[in-house]
Amino acid sequence: MYSSDTQIRVRYAETDQMGYVYHGNYAAYFEVCRTEAFRQLGISYKDLEAEGVGMPVGEIRTRFRRPARYDDLLTVRLLLKQPAEGSRVLFEYEIYNEAQELLTEGHTLMVFVNMSTGRPVPIPPHIQQKLSGYFTDDETAGPLTPPKAPVNAPAPAAFLK
Q: Which of 4, 28, 58, 129 makes a 20 to 30 Å CA pair with 83?
């Protein structure tokens, strides 16, 4: 699993009439955290786009537990709980205030695409390589991968006859 934290101070312009962070700003908070996490991993969106590969959002979900307010210092935590697969990567997020209260949870499903055609493409190998080191063999196994048998496991009874 990979985790990265980014801090964001809520600006007055990001709040609504009730003094809460306007819900539309959370997508931008997720993007800031995602971009910073990639930068920490040595992955540049700018370079990726220069290679002709984009990463549009295929899905976004946000669950609000408590409001964030003007001048709050937020910690936006990005979590990669499962390896990137095919042309997609699922980023999960948690947003905490300074009292470490969980305010918001969410995720974005990002899709790697050819910027000329808009069609999905496999995750570039250099990105797959940088992400794969954060997962154990069990975590990188897909849902159809059979579990590994223990080294000293006896043969199943059906094979002993």
A: 28
